[in-house]
Amino acid sequence: MAEVTRVAVVGAGAMGSQIAMLAALAGCETTVVDIDEQRIDAALAKVRESVARSIERGRLDAEQVEAALSRLSSSTDLASAVEDADFVIEAIVEDLDAKRALFAQLGAFAPANAILATNSSSIVSSRLADVPSPGRVCNMHFFNPALVMQLVEVVGGTHTSQATVDSAVRLAERMGKTPVVVKQEVFGFIANRIVGAIFDEAIALLEAGVATAEEIDTAVTKGLGHPVGPFALLDMTGIDVNVGIKKLEAQETQDASRGPSQTLLDLEAAGRLGKKSGRGFYEYGAR
C-alpha cells in the first residue's frame, strides 16, 4: 500500500479547511478546492488563526506549522486540483444529489487509483460509489472541529476494498487522530448514532414534561460527566441541521418514526435555529 503524498479536499467550509490543514500537517501536499475563492480565503484565514492559537498553547510547533502551510494550496479548478491526488476527501454540503454529482466528476478527473472518501456523517459511501473502481470509495468521518477532535470514523461498505480502509486508517493516524473502523454501513455510524439516541430521549423527556431543557442538560453534564448537555449541543450544531439529519434518517431507514420531533420542527419553523440565530432551546442574544 503506497504512502499518501498528495491530498485534495473538496469543500472549503469549516470542516474541509481544517481537514486540509491536518493533511498538510501530516506531510502531504494538499489542495483545498471550492467554487468560491472568497470562501477559500476566509476559511484558510480562520485555520491560520486556529493553528496560531495552538502554537501559543504549545500544542503545535511554529516550524511545523510553517512547513505545513507551505504544503497547503487552494484552487477553484476541480479537475486540475485532483488530477494527481492520491487521496481525495469530499467535505461539501450534506446533500445526496450534490455529493453524487461531485463524485461523478471525481471519478472522471482523479487518477484511477486515487481513494475517494466522503466526510459525510450520514450519507454512506455506497450511495456515492457509482464511479470506476468503486472499491476505492469510503467514508472518512471527521468530527467538528477537525483540528481538535480526536476521532475519525472510517466506514467501508460491501463495495469498499480492505486496502482502501487500511489507507484511510493510516492517513488518519498520520494526522494524529484515533481511527475507528465501522464494519457496516449503518445510519449515523457509531458516535452520532449514540448521541442521536441521547437527543431523542432528551426531547421525549422534555415533551412529556418530566423536566426542563436546563434541568435535563444539568443532569447529563453533572450526572453523566458529558461536557455539554443535549439541548445546548443541539443549539450548537443547529436546529435546522438536526431536522435535516432526522429527515434523512427516516428516509434512509424507511422508518417514519425516526423523523424529526414536533419540538424540532416547531423551533425550525419559528426561526429558532440555535446559536447561529440567537435563539433555540436557549437564548444567546441578537444575531
Automatic annotation (TrEMBL):
Domain 3-hydroxyacyl-CoA dehydrogenase NAD binding: 7-184
Statement: the UniProt record of this protein carries the keyword Oxidoreductase: yes
Superkingdom of source: Bacteria
PANTHER family, per the entry: 3-HYDROXYACYL-COA DEHYDROGENASE FAMILY PROTEIN, 3-HYDROXYBUTYRYL-COA DEHYDROGENASE
Pfam families: 3HCDH (PF00725), 3HCDH_N (PF02737)
Pathway: Lipid metabolism; butanoate metabolism
Organism whose genome encodes this protein: Microbacterium profundi
Keywords in alphabetical order: Oxidoreductase
Listed name of the protein: 3-hydroxyacyl-CoA dehydrogenase family protein
Domain 3-hydroxyacyl-CoA dehydrogenase C-terminal: from-to ranges: 188-284
Family under the similarity heading: Belongs to the 3-hydroxyacyl-CoA dehydrogenase family.
High-level lineage: Bacteria, Bacillati, Actinomycetota, Actinomycetes, Micrococcales
